[in-house]
Specification:
The structure holds two protein chains of two kinds.
Chain A lengths: L1 H16 L5 E3 L5 E5 L4 H10 L7 E9 L8 E9 L4 E9 L5 E3 L8 H12 L2 E3 L40
Parallel strand pairs in A: 2-5, 6-7
Antiparallel strand pairs in A: 1-2, 3-4, 4-5
Chain B lengths: L6 H6 L2 H4 L6 E5 L11 E7 L2 E8 L7 H5 L8 H5 L6 H16 L5 H29 L3 H22 L19 H25 L3 H7 L7 H6 L4 H5 L7 H4 L20 H28 L16 H6 L1 H11 L8 E9 L2 E9 L7 E5 L1 H5 L3 H5 L4 H11 L3 H5 L1
Antiparallel strand pairs in B: 1-2, 2-3, 4-5, 5-6
The chains are: A alpha/beta, B mainly alpha.
């Protein structure tokens, strides 16, 4: 039954966008999907428009940075939700640090405006097509993107909290 | 109401339309304005007395919680969540504990769930008391506010008995509570349930059919359900538009499915509806507290899950018992091994869906933690809601949206 649900989302998306995608359900019951950046807009629009699935509520949008993944350092995580079916879907898309560009989804969701500004503010991810991509929580004069891993919170020379001190 | 002009009539009389050479007036509302209840700025473009556009500047009290959280073990993140929506801190605490428990796969006993439900609903009542009574203040009715505020104070006294703190509560632990509720908690909660409803009734009678209040709040800051959804609104603000989306029913967490309550909804999504929805939610919350209280008292006195790897052992054990000392040390130093995984967990906060997106790489701290702060998300709708309305309406709309600066800026 669970697999059918994931398969159902896949089928609907394939019919609407003509693109391949694979949806899995993780251990916590959330549907997850990984997409290339150029499919984000089409997929979210298809999800938004499809009356049967009803994924028409953008719960959350946030960035993530992992310098260890070469070429896929930056990630944007979208959480969309279907209120009628009581399901949530997590969509991830990756980009490299050299070209941190994602399509803006403000055209679908008005609420994406500030979420994308926040992601830009902290991770330096540029959302193409955003009406007003400025910093939001940090001051405008700031040049860095503080949530990236190259800005450690504490003294980087400090070793007493390093993982190997705890047997990892 | 018939003597009043509609928005269309007002717009038709705007001076700008008659004389386009008159420029818009720029008006700074905030950052420190007594009516904004927090530090955030609105730059309003005014055409005469009407608002043409509002531009918000936020981030004045940004404290980089998401960054700080990446360096802290799970139990040290609870005090950060206090400072999000500080009007209902216990809901944030419980939401965080539930998120970590979901990641770790801890199952809490029913009594712990009911205890959590009780404090969460007390927090919701406290938050709605503040929001609605200050809406009264912003429309010029200070008396009601001073009258009901002592009951918010009384809820803080109950918190104090549970955890020792009042505003930034840091209540409970991963796996349960640090101690059982004492007799004073039960006695005070019962007194609250007995004596608060008539006081609230009196407050409501002051405003609910008050001509001045109705004229100030009806049709101000209205938003349709469709726009509200597109703006990601949740909580009482969305329910005032007529959508019955409430996480306590929609995706029950913490044994909310065991309780009998209703979700009040509005119709027009204006300021008045938000006020009425919150009023009714207080009543429903009181009913939930009543049900929870009965169950807690009749059950066997457990107040935490038996999870020695995550739940701190009692202090007297730590001093006398080797095993307990080891676990204490391991937990405090963050030597527990959380599974690798990603969890999104949301609770129904007092002003909307408060979500925690936690990514764990198996280390002692989260790899990434993102807070879905409801008012950061719905405050975007403010310019659209006040367009074409008066400056005094903007104050009332902002007040009724329940925008909390701590949550807005994280």
């Amino acid at each position: 039954m669970e697999d059918n649900k994931a398969g159902h989302i896949e089928r609907v998306l394939r019919n609407a966008t003509g693109l391949e995608c694979s949806v899995i359900q993780d251990a916590y019951g959330m549907f997850c999907m990984e997409l290339p950046v150029n499919q984000i807009y089409a997929t979210l629009l298809a999800l938004y428009r499809d009356p049967e699935l009803g994924f028409n509520f953008l719960t959350d949008l946030c960035g993530m940075h992992d310098p260890d993944k070469r070429g896929k350092e930056l990630c944007v995580v979208y959480h969309v939700q279907s209120m009628t079916r009581r399901e949530r879907l997590r969509i991830k898309a990756f980009a490299s640090e050299d070209q941190p560009e994602f399509p803006s989804i403000t055209g679908i969701y008005a609420t994406a405006n500030w979420m994308e500004r926040e992601t830009y503010d902290f991770y330096g991810i540029r959302f193409l097509g955003h009406p007003d991509l400025r910093r939001i929580l940090n001051m405008d004069e700031m040049v860095d993107f503080p949530m990236r891993r190259e800005f450690p919170l504490e003294d980087p020379l400090r070793e007493d909290k390093a993982d190997y001190q705890f047997g990892r | 109401m018939s003597a009043m002009k509609t928005n269309q009539e007002f717009l038709a009389e705007l001076p700008r339309l008659a004389r386009p050479e008159i420029p818009y007036t720029t008006l700074n509302l905030g950052p420190t304005h007594p009516a904004t209840h927090g530090i955030f700025q609105n730059v309003l473009q005014m055409d005469g007395e009407r608002i043409v556009h509002a531009e918000q500047t936020i981030g004045y009290i940004h404290r980089a919680f998401e960054k700080i959280a990446e360096r802290r073990p799970f139990y040290q993140i609870t005090p950060l969540t206090d400072r999000l929506n500080y009007c209902s801190a216990p809901i944030n605490n419980m939401g965080w504990h539930l998120t970590v428990e979901k990641l770790l796969g801890i199952k809490t006993p029913k009594r712990v769930d009911y205890m959590r439900v009780m404090v969460m609903e007390l927090a919701r009542v406290a938050d709605h008391i503040i929001c609605n009574s200050i809406l009264g203040v912003d429309t010029g009715a200070l008396t009601g506010f001073t009258y009901v505020y002592q009951w918010r104070e009384f809820i803080y006294e109950i918190y104090e008995e549970i955890c020792g703190a009042r505003l930034t509560t840091n209540m409970g632990r991963i796996g349960g509570f640090e101690r059982d509720f004492n007799d004073i908690v039960f006695e005070k909660t019962r007194r609250f349930l007995r004596e608060f409803p008539p006081v609230w009734q009196e407050f409501e009678d002051l405003l609910l059919r008050n001509r001045i209040f109705m004229d100030r709040t009806m049709e101000t800051g209205a938003i349709t359900a469709e726009r509200a959804l597109n703006y990601g609104m949740t909580g009482p603000n969305l329910r005032a538009c007529g959508l019955d989306y409430d996480l306590r029913v929609h995706e029950p967490y913490c044994s909310y499915e065991d309780f009998d309550f209703q979700i009040p909804i509005g119709t027009t999504g204006d300021t008045y509806d938000r006020f009425v929805v919150r009023n009714e939610e207080i009543r429903q919350s009181l009913s939930i507290i009543q049900q929870a209280l009965q169950r807690i008292e009749s059950m066997e006195k457990v107040f935490h899950a038996e999870e020695e790897h995550y739940y701190l052992p009692p202090k007297q054990e730590v001093y006398r018992n080797m095993e307990a000392l080891i676990y204490h040390f391991k937990i405090i130093m963050g030597e527990i091994d959380p599974p690798v995984g990603e969890v999104y967990h949301a609770v129904e906060g007092a002003n909307g869906e408060l979500g925690f997106y936690l990514v764990s790489d198996g280390g002692r701290t989260p790899f990434r933690l993102h807070f879905r702060r409801p008012c950061f998300i719905y405050y975007q709708a403010f310019p659209e809601m006040v367009r074409g309305q008066l400056l005094s309406d903007a104050i009332v709309v902002m007040s009724s949206l329940n925008v909390i600066a701590g949550e807005l800026d994280a």
